[in-house]
Structures are given as structure tokens and as C-alpha cells.
Amino acid sequence: MDLITVNDVSKTYGEKESQVHALNRITLQIKKNDFVALLGPSGSGKSTLLNVISGLERADAGEIYFAKENITRYKDKQLVQFRRQYTGYIFQQYHLIPNLTVQENIEIGKYLNADSLDLDEITKELNIQHLKKRFPYELSGGQQQRVAIARALIKKPEILFCDEATGALDEENGKQVLSYLQHLQRKYGLTIVFVTHHVGIAKMARHIIKLNSGRLVDQIMNDQPLTAEEISWG
Ligand SMILES: Nc1ncnc2c1ncn2[C@@H]1O[C@H](COP(=O)(O)OP(=O)(O)OP(=O)(O)O)[C@@H](O)[C@H]1O
User: Fold this and answer.
1) Pocket of ligand 1, candidates 10, 17, 48: which has the most ligand atoms within 8 Å of its Cβ, to mutate?
2) Could you write out the DSSP letters of every residue in 99-119?
3) Using one digit for the tens of pLDDT, what is the confidence trace for 76-108?
4) Which residues is 163 bridged to in the sheet?
5) Which residues form the ABC transporter domain (predicted)?
6) Would you say 93 and 36 are in contact if contact means Cβ atoms under 8 Å apart?
7) Is the dihedral of CA 154, 94, 145, 123 positive or negative?
8) pTM of the predicted model, to two decimals?
């Protein structure tokens, strides 16, 4: 089943000579429970595509469907509700709240959905249960990102969007975070869409979407996704 359908979507920033076609007539489908990579060089439109399909930004033209719902027709309030109910986000810089403990940071996600996961379950899954009383500055980058994953997943989103989630991490921490994402995707039947400029990381995905200069230039259905341990980092 297609969870996301993108029909002829474009987005332009700026005006006249400074105009940038960040997305140029993109059409694609994302299947439910899939692990999808948006791959391309810097400036190719990966983050813009992630932001428009997740309802963080609006496209200028075209349509985006979430299941059968045309989210491009949503008013702002409906978009906020859509994001709360169905989507989780992880960013390169973690975005934890510095003066809240790990547990409090994760609980922010919990309040967004009455039917949430148990705090102990998700912290055990991510091996951060022993860090619940600490503050973000007392954690390594990899630990902070695992807290951000717990915060995003505790409300049981249908789809998790990751923008260069391992971009600030070294190989060991980065692979550990990717390995958790792959495990959680399988365990909870999540759909994950992740942005990367890293060809090695993209090989963990089953569906690889390649972008260049705002255009979709190739799509690969990867029958043998690699594990985090198998990918080459350099
Ligand atoms: N808010 C904005 N205002 C103006 N131009 C923008 C804005 N956001 C993105 N762009 C431009 O749109 C194009 C696509 O940007 P985008 O961030 O989507 O690319 P990306 O592939 O994610 O790049 P990176 O890997 O460097 O993050 C770039 O040329 C960028 O400069």
C-alpha cells in the first residue's frame, strides 16, 4: 500500500535572478512500512522534499497524499494536527531541550498521543534507560540522538522523517543510531524516510530515491539492504 503519493510537486525559493527551483516536478510513491533514502548532493532538494512530504513546508504546485488524504489542501491547523498524529522527526542536531532531563525530553513526545508507547519500553529499546535523569549536555552525541529517536517514537507515529540523522556523529555512534533505526522500523512496522548525501548509508534503504538539482533522477528498489555494520562509512 502507498502511504505517501507525491504528484508533480514543485517548490521555488526566491525571485527573479536569485530564484532556485528546489523541487522540480517530483512524482513518487512511498510504501507503508518501507525504509526509504532520499539521496543526493548538497543543494539537490533532499531537505525540501522531506519538509513538504512531512507537512513542515508547503509545495508551490502539485499534490501530496498521505494514504488517501490530500494534505496539500489542508489548512494550517489541519497540518499541525496531521504532523502531531502521524509523523515523527529526527534532525542532525538532535534539538533536545537543554534544561529538561532525558525523561522529560522524551515525555514531550508522549503528550502528543494518548495511545503512546511506554517510557520504559522505548528507553530499553534504545539502551538509554540508565540515562533518564541526566541532562542533554551530560550525554554523547550518539546518546542524544537516541533520546531524540525515543522522543519521536514514543507517540507511535506512522512515519518517521530523519534529516541527516547521523550527520554529526562519528562512525561508531552513527552506525549504532542507524542500527537502532533499522531495528525499530522492523519491530514497529514503521515507515522511515531518511535524507542522506552518503551513498553507503543509502544502501541500508530498500527504496533509494536519487535527487539532483531539484529533480528526481533515479529510483532503486534495493532487494538486499545492508545492515549498519555492513556499510562503508568513509
Ligand atoms: N528557505 C530557503 N530560502 C531560499 N533558498 C532555499 C531555502 N531552503 C533551501 N533553499 C535552496 O533550495 C535548494 C535545495 O535545498 P535543500 O536544503 O533542500 O537541499 P539539500 O539537498 O537538503 O542540501 P544539503 O544536503 O546541503 O542540506 C538549495 O539551492 C538551497 O539553497
Assistant:
1) 48
2) TS-HHHHHHHHHTT-SSPPPH
3) 999 999 998 899 999 989 999 999 999 999 998
4) 91, 195
5) 4-233
6) no
7) negative
8) 0.94
